[in-house]
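Q: Got a minute? One more chain.
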Amino acid sequence: MMIAQRLAGIVIAGLLLLAGCASDPSEGYSTASVFPSDIRTVAVPILENDTFIRGVEFELTDALIKEIEARTPYKVTAQHRADTIFLGRVKRVELDQLSKSRLTGLGEEVIVSVTIDFEWKDWRSDAPLVARKSFSGHGLAVPSAPTGERVELGRMAAVQQLARDIVDEMRAAW
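A: Always. Here it is, folded:
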């Protein structure tokens, strides 16, 4: 008798859970994927760089590929085999001083901002899926004593944040 009651409780809880979910994510809670289902592969060529800061385009491309592979159902592949392509251009890399030492006047905390323009488009139809201008990521570096962090650490944090935000933008329209 006790097993039958537990089983009935589990079945009722399951039915209530399913009744509360919608098949379309735009209509409420859903168990469906938030990524477009007709896309399987993405090509991510190395981003272009309009700044004098070299290497940031390689760092961002690498971070973006890793985020796509880890957080989406898509596989990153070569352009000739891809359903879609991600194109981007690094527009600005800026350092903004948040605070400075009262004794030396040197920067104690620095925000590194990386700004890009990007477009994710369907390679088959050439239709844009997502396009953003002046999309930014930010990272903090503390170059002053006692930490003595390098500014590159802040740049890497900005690149990682930017890659996560780009993958968030790749979700299906709600």
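A: The mean pLDDT is 84.
Q: Perfect, thanks.
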